[in-house]
Amino acid sequence: MRRARRAANIRQMTQTSPRVELVVDDLVLIGCSASERYAIGDAFSSELERMLSGADSRQTFQHSAELPALDAGSIAVSSQRRPGSIGAQVAQAVYGSLTAGSKGGKR
After folding, report:
1. pLDDT confidence tier of residue 105, bands split at 50, 70 and 90
2. Average pLDDT over residues 58-71
3. Cβ contacts of 7 within 8 Å, gap of 6 or more
4. Residue 63 pLDDT more than 70?
5. What confidence tens digit (pLDDT) does each residue in 30-53 have?
6. Phi, psi (5° rounding) for residue 92?
7. CA 35 – CA 28 distance, rounded (Å)
């Protein structure tokens, strides 16, 4: 039993983790102030990185894919919005579109 557990641990340590690379050339936000763009972009990057580094994404992104464009739809933003929350919402919408596409949904 101990030998089998050790062998399993060695296999797990020597396996390479899947690599997810996502390049966002343009992020088009309509109705946001230009002065908020960096705060929104930073929050977007942080949230998307957090979501992509999760255990679920390792199973979701099994194959390479190149998408020339991805429409993540629209999000509802309250009147008392903060750039950080907008960026996080946009990241969640993008991630949702990516994972729906990899599960046989619209890409």
Report:
1. very low
2. 70
3. none
4. no
5. 888 889 989 999 999 999 988 888
6. -65, -35
7. 14
Report the Cα–Cα distance between both ends of the chain, in Å, rounded.
Answer: 46
Closest listed residue to residue 81, CA positions, set 29, 28, 26, 25? 29
C-alpha to C-alpha distance for 72 and 65, rounded to whole angstroms: 17
Name residue 22's amino acid.
L
DSSP string computed for 5-43: HHHHHHHHHHSPPP------S----SS--GGGHHHHHHH
Pull the structure tokens for residue 52.
């992509």
Q: Is 31 exposed, middle or buried (0-12, 13-18, 19+ CB in 10 A)?
A: exposed
CB neighbours of residue 73 within 10 Å: 9
**pTM for the complete prediction?**
0.68
> How many other CB atoms are found less than 10 A from the CB of residue 47?
20
Sign of the dihedral defined by the CA atoms of residues 76, 81, 37, 40, in that order? negative
